Amino acid sequence: MFDDLMIPFLNLMHIIWHLNRATTVVHRRQTMSTSGALPVVDLAPFFTQDDEAGGVARATEAVREACRTHGFFRAVNHGVPPELMARALELSAAFFALPDEEKAKPRQAEGSEAPLPAGYARQPAHSADKNEYLLVFDPKIGFNVYPAEPAGFREAVEECYAKFTELGLLVQEILNECMGLPQGFFRDFNGDRGFDFMAALRYFPATEEESNNGLSAHEDGNCITFVIQDGVGGLEVLKDGEWVPAEPVEGSIIVNIGDVIHVLSNGKLKSATHRVVRKPAHRHSFAFFFNIHGDKWIEPLPEFTAKIGDAPRYRGFVFNEYQQLRMRNKTHPPSRPEDVVHITHYAI
Q1: Catalytic positions
Q2: Any idea where the Fe2OG dioxygenase domain is (predicted)?
């Protein structure tokens, strides 16, 4: 979900919001089921002290299967309070409803050392994508700029950021187990949280005059993405050649893995193509990008190559190099579609 926010600045991905309580009860009994077309994974076993029933193992297997087949899943009982997600979306909608001159005020000063410009931005008029957003980093780093209105927006954003960071650390540990890696591997390999970021987004309504891209089809270049959204819908995932809607479901979070995990697993876990289609109404969402340091070397891990007798499907690369190539797709769009850089650029 990650380089369209990169100029404007790294693709947004997407986490979903709206799950009824009746289905939540069912999810507690059944770790993985289907809500619409996306797998549903109940993370409740990771928040309980007693796991005599083997819930953690079942949930871990559900995550493994979802990442193998879809690259996406809908997380329920994930530890992020539904009322916090609802409040953040409501305040985000109030911010984006402000006059343009007010929205434009929270912009980062020139010379900032932030990996990407924090604050408000809007896709250029010539862009195929039609959205605007407010980008934030870990509040402890000091890069963020916030609007004065609406009241409580900053607090809700920072609380969401903290909860999504906790969830990212949990999902990363689950992936560590799913991938059969040494205990603590990801904790050591990806312990720097300074490159994570989150975006509050508003997608403009569909029109008859324009294409209805809210966000063009893409894969996320990062590790893990979370998305929450209002009830408008529009997020779609490509599965077996068909676009599958990730419908809004109250209280749930859409989780997808990105190209980094795809390459580390030598293609065993899927970085799925997805998009946002504009609807008749504005669509509001938050996307949180659990990232990796730009200096990290990314290549298929031995557990997926030498240790099982498989050849690497990708050559290694420095993460920041890949992000610069993806950003160039936006700043200098190739004349031929086949020249757009994807992770297949590194395919062997």
Answers
A1: 283
A2: 194-292
